[in-house]
Amino acid sequence: MVAVQPAKPIARRPVVRPVAADEEPDGPPCPACGTPNLPGRRFCRRCAAPLYTREQPAPLPWWRTVWPFRRRVRGGSGRALRRTMMVLAVVGLLFAGFLFLPAGRYLFEDVRDKLGGTTEISPAEVTASAQAPGHPATAAVDGLTDKYWGAPELGSSLTCVFDKPFRLVGVVVHTGVSKEPKEFRQGARPTRADLIVTTADGEVREKAVTFTDKPGPQTVRTGISDVVSVRLVLRAASGQGEGRPIAVGEVEFFRRT
Predict the structure, then answer these.
(1) CB-side exposure of 134: number of CA atoms within 13 Å?
(2) Could you give the angle at which helices 79-100 and 102-115 cross, rounded to 10 degrees?
(3) How distant, in Å, are the alpha carbons of 96, 144, 170, 172 from that of 219?
């Protein structure tokens, strides 16, 4: 029996299979070369450029180019200080504008009147253009409501002069012969008057006042600075009759403290 040598192995020939045509990727194009890429890729399949770049921050507004706002900082780094400085600057400008404008000065003083305290101030001199017997002008500022200045007719005035200028916040007037309702109705009492205020520079401010026809204090807000005199002129009255002078029980003046 003859020995047979093993056959030499022969490699199998490769089988060529048809390759499907590449589909065009529908992902974002490369910002560098424009090649389309599959969704989810981070780098371009052709040039390897990054497909997603960080957005550039918006340019600073002009006011952020001025110190101390001219530099970008991390969130919260100095932001509170800059905001505080901005608010203070705006408040300062508004305050300066208020002080230079008449309406602003009036608003500023009015706020001070409301926030500050008041105290009564007595006039240094009191006179009347006319007065009924036994009812002098001084009875209107003696601190008592059972005594009164009696004006014989409409148009009569009561003038109070002060020794130094002050901020007149308000005037309180008690009309009638008494604060008791029954006695109040038995006398004549003013229902309308003019309040004429003179300041240290000679300016005259006039305010029409209407009184309710009932006993008790009636407040008139004024808010006038540098007041040196106040004149009350009676324009209308109720309960007038023979032998009934128009009664003003008390006039009180209040200044800002």
Answers:
(1) 6
(2) 110
(3) 32, 17, 7, 4
User: CA–CA separation, 120 vs 233, rounded Å?
Assistant: 21
- End-to-end CA distance of the chain: give it in Å, rounded: 142
Tokens of 81: 């200080």
SS3 assignment for 182-248: HHHHCCEEEEEEEEEEEECCCCEEEEEEECCCCCCEEEEEEEEEEEEEEEEEEEEEECCECCECEEE
Distance CA 85, CA 117 (A): 32
* Per-residue pLDDT reduced to its tens digit, 45-69: 888 888 877 666 677 666 666 655 5
Q: Copy the structure tokens of residue 72.
A: 């970008």
| CA 243 and chain centroid, separation | 52
Q: Could you say which DSSP state residue 50 is in?
A: B
Tokens of 38: 């599959």
Reduced to 3 states, what is the DSSP secondary structure of residue 20?
A: coil
Q: Identify which of 249, 232, 218 has the alpha carbon closest to the alpha carbon of residue 147.
A: 249
Q: What is the DSSP letter of 16?
A: P
- 26 vs 72: CA distance, rounded Å: 38
Q: Which pTM was predicted?
A: 0.60
Nearest 5°: the CA angle 114, 175, 158 is 85
pLDDT of 130 above 90: yes
Cα angle vertex 202, ends 199, 208, to 5°?
60
- Supply the pLDDT for residue 203: 95
